[in-house]
Write a structure and sequence with these properties.
Layout: E1 5-10, H1 18-31, E2 36-41, H2 43-50, H3 57-71, E3 79-82, H4 88-97, H5 102-106, H6 109-119, H7 128-131, H8 133-143, E4 148-151, H9 156-172, E5 182-185, H10 213-221, H11 242-250, H12 255-263, H13 269-283, H14 285-295, H15 298-327
Parallel strand pairs: 1-2, 2-3, 4-5
C-alpha cells in the first residue's frame, strides 16, 4: 500500500442527522483524498442493540448509503459496502473471539453505561452479541489490515482494545499478520441538539441530514434561546443560546456582529433564527439537492453497494487465507 489504509463504519440505526455528518462524515470526505478507504454500513453491529426489531433495517441501509453519497463520498475512490455482504467479517470475529479474554470485554468503558441506559428502556442487553461487540469491531478493522482508524478522542479505548487483540494474535501465532492500527483524530465540530442536550435520535432533538429548507426552518424555530430574554430589545446572553452555537459553526462571517447585537438587544431571536436558517440552507443546498436525486435512483445505490462488496470481498478472501494459515485452520 502506497498510502495508509483506513477502515471505518456506521450503524444503520435510523435517520442520519447533522451531528453525525459534522462529527464523522465530513472528516471522511477529507480523508478519502489521502488514504485508501474502506467505509462500511455495519448492519451486524446494529443488531447488537436492535435485534428485536429489524423491520426497518434494509430501509436504513439504503438511506445511509444515500446520505454518504450525497455528502460527497466517492464510490470510485472508496470501497463502500454493507458489512454483512462480506461473510468474512463474521468469520474473523468468531476466530478472534476464541482468544479474546472475557475480562477485556467487560472493562470496555461504554459496556456498563449502555447496559444501564438501554436497560432502563426495558431492553435486555445481556447478550453474547452485545458483549462481543468490540471483537466484531476489531475484526472489521483487522480483516482489511487497516493501518489507520478515524476516531474522536472519546473513542480511543475501543481502538486500543483492537490494538491489544492484534498484539495477542500476532504473539499467539508467531507471525505478524496484522499491523497495529493508529488513530487518525478528527477535529469534529460538535453540534448540540435543538434543545441543548447532545444531538441524538433518541432525544428527538436532531436536524435531519439533507433536510429541506422548510424542515430546516422548522427545526431552527424550535431551538432554545436565552430563557431570561422576554422582549425583542432585552439584552441576551449568547453563551446559553443554541442558535448562537450554530451561528458559530455555520455563520462565521457574521457571528461576531450577531453576538454584539444580541448582547445589546439590537437583534431579536426570531430574526437571528431566520438568518441562521438562510445561511444553513445556502451552505447545505447542494447536499439536499443531491440527496433528493439519489432517492430516485435505488438501482444505482444497490449497484454502488454491490460493487463495493465485490472489491471488499477480494481483499477479505485474500487476507483470510493468511489468517487461517497462521492459525492452522485452513
Amino acid at each position: 500500500m502506497s498510502k495508509g489504509r483506513i477502515f471505518s463504519g456506521m450503524q444503520p440505526s435510523g435517520r442520519f442527522h447533522l451531528g453525525n455528518y459534522m462529527g464523522a462524515l465530513e472528516n471522511w470526505i477529507k480523508l478519502q483524498n489521502d488514504y485508501e478507504c474502506f467505509f462500511s454500513i455495519v448492519d451486524l453491529h446494529a443488531l447488537t442493540s436492535s435485534y428485536d426489531d429489524t423491520s426497518k433495517l434494509q430501509d436504513n441501509i439504503m438511506e445511509m448509503a444515500i446520505d454518504w453519497l450525497s455528502a460527497g463520498l466517492d464510490p470510485e475512490k472508496n470501497v463502500i459496502f454493507v458489512q454483512s455482504h462480506v461473510k468474512e467479517h463474521a468469520e474473523l470475529a468468531l476466530l478472534l473471539g476464541m482468544s479474546t479474554p472475557l475480562s477485556w470485554l467487560e472493562r470496555v468503558p461504554t459496556y456498563k453505561d449502555k447496559i444501564a441506559n438501554l436497560g432502563s428502556q426495558g431492553k435486555d442487553m445481556y447478550t453474547y452479541g452485545f458483549l462481543g461487540y468490540p471483537v466484531l469491531m476489531a475484526a472489521d478493522i483487522m480483516l482489511y489490515k487497516a493501518t489507520c482508524v478515524p476516531v474522536g478522542e472519546d473513542q480511543t479505548a475501543h481502538l486500543e482494545l483492537t490494538r491489544e487483540i492484534v498484539r495477542r494474535f500476532n504473539y499467539l501465532y508467531k507471525k505478524d499478520v496484522f499491523p497495529e492500527p493508529e488513530a487518525v483524530y478528527s477535529k469534529a465540530k460538535v453540534l448540540p441538539g435543538i434543545d441543548g442536550r447532545k444531538m441524538s435520535k433518541s432525544y428527538g432533538n436532531t436536524i435531519p441530514f439533507g433536510a429541506s429548507p422548510e424542515e430546516m426552518m422548522e427545526r431552527i424555530r424550535m431551538m432554545t434561546t436565552d430563557p431570561a430574554r422576554i422582549k425583542k430589545d432585552d439584552p441576551g446572553n449568547p453563551d446559553i443560546c443554541i442558535v448562537y452555537a450554530f451561528q458559530k459553526v455555520f455563520n462565521t462571517e457574521e457571528v461576531v456582529d450577531i453576538e454584539a447585537k444580541c448582547r445589546a438587544g439590537e437583534i431579536g431571536c426570531v430574526q437571528c433564527k431566520k438568518i441562521l436558517a438562510e445561511k444553513m440552507n445556502y451552505m447545505l443546498a447542494d447536499i439536499h439537492t443531491k440527496r433528493e436525486e439519489l432517492k430516485q435512483k435505488p438501482g444505482y445505490i444497490k449497484e454502488v453497494l454491490e460493487f463495493g462488496a465485490q472489491r471488499a470481498q477480494v481483499e477479505a478472501s485474500k487476507n483470510m487465507v493468511e489468517i487461517k494459515e497462521a492459525m492452522n485452520v485452513l
